[in-house]
Amino acid sequence: MPAFSLARLERLRVLLVDNTPMTRELVQGVLESVGVRHFMTANDGRSALDLLPAFGPHLAFVDWEMEPMCGLDFVRAVRKLPEYDNPFLPIVMFTSHAEEPWVIKARDVGVHDYMVKPASGATILAKLASIINNPRPFMRTDNYFGPARRIGIVGAVRS
Amino acid sequence: MVMPFRRTRGYIDPPLRARLVDFAGTAFDADDLSRAEEAIAKVVTRYPTLLADEIAKLVAAWDAAPEQLTSEVVGPIFTVAHDLAGYGATFGYPLITVFGRSLSRLLTMGDLSREQMAAVVDAHIATLRVIVRDRMKGSDGPMGLQLAASLDQAITKFHLAAGSERKGRLHDEVAALQAKKK
Q: How large is the ipTM?
């Protein structure tokens, strides 16, 4: 298998949702440094939802505390989208909430992964690689639709 | 027969696009990591200005708060404190993260009155202002510990007044931060 070329990441479309412009710039800067070129940014979940159909992101980094629509409600809304609008969108919750109950809450609405602020460049890249290289099956039950839940998401934050 | 998407129960294989198959095998080497850290360093240079603006926002939100602090009233103050906690350490100001997080925690303790919270919130704001004024980067040695200890007193007093024996633990948190740096 040929070695991975970062040039491939040029085609990756990333949605950054955070009410702090500097945090968006930070994540964008890190991803640009490895060749990602396509970004859309939003201040809150509501504006992000409006961007989804036209932009068609492959991946989203989403803050929790935002007004008027918080990150958790954004995830809920994405998971309710019709199939052609990609309810499977991989979402990384990127937040200052570091305590376990928050992580569990995020997992239970269907985030793929969880990253606690502050995060280094290495952490952001590790999350990106992990999301790309470990696609997860989805599951639907009577009260859940999202990536097949795993205990690991909680342990990863705890460590 | 293919089940309609909404009716399917159990495991579902996402379409190829959602599995990001086009990008499979993504890996980063040491050069990539150092470019990523350089990208962060570029954003960091603008942080002190943003920090001063954020603290001004915090003060304005707190000044505007009425006597009864419902969760709706506290929302904007919490958001600024939470944001400060979020990126302080990334931009080289871990004390902002520790003290911003402490303020966020206090603000989520339920509906309290402004009078009950005034001293402890004012103490946090004053401490954050000192960090900005003196550009206290890093966990900043004895001064960092002193600020944490003084906030601990305000936190302990606040808990006591609320009938709890909980104590401020910021001094321990900052000490642990400093020990980690050594």
A: 0.85
